[in-house]
Amino acid sequence: MKHITLLVPKGAILGSVEGPRQVFTEVNKLLKSMGKPAMFQLQLAGLTREVTVAGGIYTVYTDVLAQDISKTDLIIIPALDGEMPSALEMNRAFMPWIIEQYQKGAEVASLCVGAFLLASTGLVNGRKCATHWMAANDFRRMFPEVQLVEDRIITDEQGIYSSGGAFSYLNLVLYLIEKFVGREIAVLMSKAFQIDIERRSQSPFVIFNGQKDHEDDLIKKAQEFIEANYQEKITVDELASMFYLGRRNLERRFKKATSNTVMEYIQRVKVEAAKMRLETSRENVNEVMYSVGYSDTKAFRTTFKKITGISPLEYRNKYNKEVAQISVN
Length: 329
Known about the structure:
By secondary structure, this protein is α/β, with parallel strands linked by helices. The chain has 15 helices and eleven strands.
């Protein structure tokens, strides 16, 4: 039997506590109905026996204090609410305990922005980690030594797991169920809770806003120029000349400030504009392609799919209101 410690941090998002608890509990019920022994012993663990969550709206009564658990098999860190520095400070006492348990052989999984608490332990330094795409810029700034994979829903790094944003944590829960109990039970849980078990990317949901929370004013001007002129063909050499920088110097400063190369930034701005047009206009894919400055159909489709995880046509069919209504009717 796997001992799961589901942490209840102060100010946790309630859904990411109750969601995993419910799914793991249902696995035990299902196994019992099949005449098999339960797989999971799950405990809610806090720094106190009563923990206020969701901005103080709810109180969770924990089963045990984390400090009283000498050994566990899997620690689950749910999402934290509010300003992250203060949320981490309130829950700092969890960090040495998580490190100690990992060193004893426990695995650790973070859900959504629970990745911030995981990263604060140092356990994912030099490793891949996922979090909510909306928190990506803050995460990179706070934990530059962690390899953030913004598009991923699940990471599995030597017994440390993380998930993408919001309810995509359920995909990580299914992944863990499949790993510990088997594919059959994971599929049954995906059907019971109506979770798309094969979803591995949060790219289709990402809204690219650029990374401007930095101090390099010249690079901000370069970003603003790209965003105002994305319909044109912009080259790195032209940008470097415009801002009186050598190409290598521009590339170095741009990457440091934005976490993107210049060409990646240009592509992401163009694709974000294309997404908006595919969602709201009646233009076909080729018309949208030309409107954002692409003339090569293959290059546009390849870049679009690389960034969003799906083709332009699939994106239009998924998010355009008129197309969706036609499908329903």
